[in-house]
Design goal:
- The protein is of the alpha+beta class.
- It is 19% helix and 39% strand.
- The strands form two sheets. It has a four-stranded mixed sheet, with helices on one face. It has a two-stranded antiparallel ribbon with strand order 2-3.
- The two termini are 15 Å apart.
């Protein structure tokens, strides 16, 4: 008999920040000289904090260490937003909060784009 697979669901309010525009080059002092480093933009750090706050408590208690499927409904306020930016940011946020050990464990992604008055994402994660 196959073990029941759990499904984890959440809704995150707001528009997902574009990953391609969310990093900047900074300088860090190391070994007596300054070296360039990539730092997250204020907007991305702010989105990560909001993402964490919107997650149900189970996301802070469970850790997925197996292959999983991500299913997302992304709601934009206008059609100009690209759908393909959202999964990478969401996966990075899930890894950042410790819900998944590594985003390379995502073996399947289902994305749907919607237009709505309020931006948000609804997503489900299930182990494969």
């Amino acid at each position: 008999m196959e073990k029941d697979k759990k499904i984890y669901e959440a809704t995150i309010l707001g528009t997902v920040v574009s990953k391609s525009n969310s990093y900047r080059v900074g300088m860090k002092k190391g070994a007596g000289k300054y070296i360039p480093i990539m730092t997250k933009s204020y907007k991305l750090r702010e989105y990560e904090m909001m993402f964490r706050k919107c997650l149900p408590s189970v996301f802070h208690k469970v850790v997925i260490e197996k292959r999983f499927r991500l299913e997302m409904d992304v709601y934009f306020t206008r059609n100009a937003n690209d759908l393909d930016n959202t999964p990478k940011v969401v996966l990075d946020c899930l890894q950042h909060v410790g819900f998944i050990t590594n985003d390379n464990l995502c073996f399947e992604i289902v994305l749907r784009k919607h237009l709505a008055p309020d931006a948000k994402i609804n997503f489900k994660i299930s182990e494969l």
